Amino acid sequence: MAEDTNPQEKQFSIQKVYTKDLSFETPNAPKIFREKWEPAVDFNLGTHVDKLDETVFEVTLTVTITVKSVDITAYLVEVNQAGIFTLEHFTEQEMGPMLGSFCPNILFPYAREVVSDLVAKGGFPQLLLAPVNFDALYAQHMQQVQQQMAGSSSIN
């Protein structure tokens, strides 16, 4: 009798991708449209994971952008782009990179499109966000977590 030595096959699927929340503000309109356009962009990313059941997760990518021109805030954009993902038979070590890098990488093009559309509809030149290396961001985050853990254990 042959033993079943094959581990269970990993399964990943996208159940849903959706815009969970968005905000666009032009606090200095219409004055900003009369000023010289010299944009300075402040760009921030964040992720949040909610476990919906044993193998289903909601991952939310938050993109926040503030654009100033000549030290006047032109606009602020915040987009929470979310997805529901099924991940089965992944190890604990694999789950972190899947949820912290792979899933946000899937969501980013959707968020990028929402930002571009909002900015254009707000009356400003199109803003195309550059691609993001979520693998590098996740690695940097994990390094910071390890440093914080090492720092807190040396205090004791």
Strand arrangement in the largest pleated sheet: 1-4-3-2
Structural class assignment? alpha+beta
CATH architecture: Roll
What's the SSE pattern?
A: EEEEHH
Mean of residue pLDDT values: 92
Give me the CATH fold name.
Bacterial Protein-export protein SecB
Percentage of β-strand residues: 35-45%
CA-atom Rg in angstroms: 20 Å
What do we call the CATH homologous superfamily? SecB-like
Tally of contiguous helical segments = 2
Q: Which word captures the global form? A: elongated
CATH C-level name: Alpha Beta
Task: Summarize the structure in words.
The radius of gyration is 20 Å and the shape is elongated. It is built from 2 helices and 4 strands. The relative contact order is 0.19. By secondary structure, the protein is α+β, with helices and mostly antiparallel strands. The protein has a single domain (11-151), classed as Bacterial Protein-export protein SecB, CATH 3.10.420. Helices cover 33% and strands 38% of the residues. The mean pLDDT is 92. It has helices at 92-121, 134-155, and strands at residues 11-25, 39-51, 56-69, 72-88.
Task: Based on the model shown, name its key terms.
alpha+beta; four-stranded antiparallel beta sheet; SecB; 4 strands; Bacterial Protein-export protein SecB; single chain; 156 residues
